[in-house]
Structures are given as C-alpha cells and as structure tokens.
Amino acid sequence: MPRKKLIAANWKMYKTPEQATAFFRDFLPLVAGHSRDEIAVCPPFVDIAAAVTAAKGSNVGIGAQDMFWEKEGAFTGQISTAMLRAAGCTHVIIGHSERRQFFGETDDTVNKKLKAALAAGLTPIVCVGELLQEREAGLTEDVLRRQTVNAFRGIGAVESAPITVAYEPVWAIGTGRTATPQMAAEAHRLIRAEAAKAFGEPAAQALRILYGGSVKPDNATALMSELEIDGALVGGASLDPKSFTSIVKWGM
Ligand code: 13P
C-alpha cells in the first residue's frame, strides 16, 4: 500500500500568535480540499492556541516542536504531552538537530520523548541526520544507525505504528544545499532497514520517512517524486503561505 505523504512545517522560532493567525487566513484557502498529502504545521508553543483555533475543521493538523516526557511536576519551562493534546496538537517534532546541537538533546532523551509521545497518542516526527564532518568522514551510515536504533529502543511493533521519521542532514538545514533525491533515498533505505530490525518488515514498510533540509518550491517535486521519500519537513519555506502551498502541492 502506498504511504500517504506528510508535508510538515517547522516554523522554528518565528511568528507571534497574531502572525500565525494571519498565516492560516491566507494558507487554508490555498490548500482547501487537498487530500493527496497530509498537512501539519508546527509553530512555537505560544502560537499553538491561535493555530489550533485558526485551523479548526480544516485539513491541517497542528504540532509542537518539542515536548517533555514526564507527565507533570517541577520542570520549569517544560511542556507535557497531555498539555499538547489538550491544546489541540496532533503531531510533535522530537530530536530536531537544533535541539541536539544547542539544547542538550541526546539519543536517550529522544527515546524517552518518543515513548511518551506514543503513549499520549501524538504522531511523533523523530529527526535524525548527520553533520557535514560526519558525512565527509564517511560516518553517515553509522550516525543514522546509532540515532535510529537508540530512538526505537524498547518500542514494540504495534506501538510503533504512528512513528514518522525525518531525515534531515544537518549540512542541508537552512543552507540552501539539499541532498539529491538519490542521497536522501539511500539514507531512507538505511533507516527503513533499521526499522525492520526493530519492528519487523510490515511495520517498516508502513513507516513514513520524511526528508528535511532546504526543501523549497523549486526542488519539492524532484524530492517528493522519489518513492522512498514519504514527505517533507520544511523550515524557512514554510513561513510564507504561498511558498508552503507550492511545496504541499508538489507536482500539481
Ligand atoms: P530549512 O527548510 O529552513 O532548511 O529547515 C529544515 C528543517 O530543519 C526543518 O525541520
């Protein structure tokens, strides 16, 4: 069965609630009735309420960019999965390379967050990807294998069903340099092989693996036409309603 593609926006630290509302006012009419691909937008935490209100009843899901694995407690600054669900989120990004680079995210915290997101019924988007130095040193496969195996640790085949992985080579993020569809497909095959070891072949065949890193309107069709690429995680080009629409409607 073909995997339905997910085109997800990661707004990172951009837009106020008012700007989020304005985005949806322009964006929703442009993608109204689009059902070929699943669409999600992940704004900053403080914009989630505005985004959920604006997107209510539409074909666009709202997600968070991070979460904490504990249910509640003295964890200043953290947001739980129950809070995200109550706020109307359906998706959550876990282990983005910027969180790994700047905020101490590790393979172990990614695993804890992934388990908590699954338990809460959120669709997790788990990010993996190698640094430029790692690619140049021929370590891409080792890094992807390590990140994937550790993320999936202790998760069963049945529970794994909602997991989505995003392959985001760090050297392609925000740089205008994209992996070629062939490079991405090769990485995706490796990730899928690891998923098969962890969850079995049927679950691995159903697993969606997105590509992220300088996805733009002019390269989206080439990337999304690749059978191994099950969608996109889009940063910069998702901030503008028209440009994100062109990516959602790749090839149309
Ligand atoms: P850019 O699309 O801005 O390169 O960002 C990619 C990304 O990190 C999405 O999570």
UniProtKB/TrEMBL annotation:
GO BP field: gluconeogenesis; glyceraldehyde-3-phosphate biosynthetic process; glycerol catabolic process; glycolytic process
Leader sequence residues: none
SUPFAM superfamilies: Triosephosphate isomerase (TIM)
InterPro entries noted in UniProt: Aldolase_TIM (IPR013785), TIM_sf (IPR035990), TrioseP_Isoase_bac/euk (IPR022896), Triosephosphate_isomerase (IPR000652), Triosephosphate_isomerase_AS (IPR020861)
Compartmental location: Cytoplasm
Active site per database record: H96 (electrophile), E168 (proton acceptor)
Cellular component terms (Gene Ontology): cytosol
Keywords: Cytoplasm, Gluconeogenesis, Glycolysis, Isomerase
Keyword Nucleotidyltransferase annotated: no
EC assignment: 5.3.1.1
Pathway terms, separated by semicolons: Carbohydrate degradation; glycolysis; D-glyceraldehyde 3-phosphate from glycerone phosphate: step 1/1; Carbohydrate biosynthesis; gluconeogenesis
Gene3D superfamilies xrefs: Aldolase class I
GO molecular function ontology, one term from the record: triose-phosphate isomerase activity
Binding site for substrate: N10, W11, K12, G174, S214, G235, G236
Superkingdom to which the source organism belongs: Bacteria
CDD domains assigned: TIM
Reactions catalysed, as given in the entry: D-glyceraldehyde 3-phosphate = dihydroxyacetone phosphate
PANTHER family in alphabetical order: TRIOSEPHOSPHATE ISOMERASE
Protein family per UniProt: Belongs to the triosephosphate isomerase family.
Function according to Swiss-Prot or TrEMBL: Involved in the gluconeogenesis. Catalyzes stereospecifically the conversion of dihydroxyacetone phosphate (DHAP) to D-glyceraldehyde-3-phosphate (G3P).
Quaternary structure, from the entry: Homodimer.
Protein name per its UniProtKB record: Triosephosphate isomerase
Source organism (scientific name): Candidatus Korobacter versatilis
Gene name of this polypeptide: tpiA
